[in-house]
Amino acid sequence: MRGAFQLPGWKVKAVRWGHYERGLTLVELLLVLALLGLAAAAVGGFYLCGIFAWRKGVDRMDSQQNARAAMELVDRELRFAHWVDVAKEDGEIRYGLPSDPQGDHRRHFRRFRLWGGQLLLEQIVGGSTYSSNVAAGGISAVSFQVDGDGRVLISITAGSGESAVTLQSSVRPRNLPETVTP
User: Fold this and answer.
1) Cβ–Cβ < 8 Å for 94, 87
2) Buried b (16+ CB within 10 A) or exposed e, 67-90
3) Distances in Å between the alpha carbon of 103 and those of 85, 99, 115, 179?
4) Nearest-angstrom CA–CA distance, 23 and 2
5) Enclosing H/E stretch for 118
6) Residue 119 forms beta bridges with which residues?
7) N or C: which end of the chain has fewer CB within 10 A?
């Protein structure tokens, strides 16, 4: 055939009415489909890796936000306490504010405690729970300690696994008496 562009290895055959038809063999077609399948698998793999990384970042951000909100509330509440008592159970601290009823600290107090993945802020009046509020959710561990200077050391862990975040802080309650025994 003269004047027609022809690729090496491609056969051109004449068809009726002067049209030309180029065809693919079955082997060539299967090879193209296999290469397209490999390319689609690679693109899909990159896409899934991106989705997993994005989800991991969102989980970590949620954990940081929960821990930060819990830490801010605990810090703000304890800053104005006039007495502080760390319970023998890990994850609970009892305290009193100047506005609370004075007297027996065993019957009138406020406390932070960990319960079922939630940090609770409770007010105890007359020995029974007067109010209970969720301070933050998604909290996996809480630790309180009082040092010799009266500072309360706080550690809050939110999330689990690779998305777990631990924040630590300390606060010196402003209304504590000068001598404090831990």
Assistant:
1) yes
2) bebbbebbeebbeebbbbbbeeee
3) 15, 12, 27, 19
4) 19
5) strand 118-125
6) 114, 136
7) N
Helix (H) or strand (E) holding 70: helix 26-79
Residue type, 178: E
Cβ–Cβ under 8 Å, residues 95 and 108: no
Contact indicator for 43, 35 with CB cutoff of 8 Å:
no
Taking only the tens place, the pLDDT of each residue in 42-92 is: 999 999 999 999 999 898 999 899 899 999 999 999 998 888 888 776 678
121-145: burial string, b at 16+ Cβ within 10 Å, e else: bbebeeeeeeeeeebbebbbebbbe
Per-residue pLDDT tens over the stretch 96-127 = 887 777 766 677 888 898 888 899 999 988 88
Half-sphere exposure of 128 (CA within 13 A, CB side): 0
Query: If you search the block for the tokens 């079922």, which residue do you land on?
Result: 116
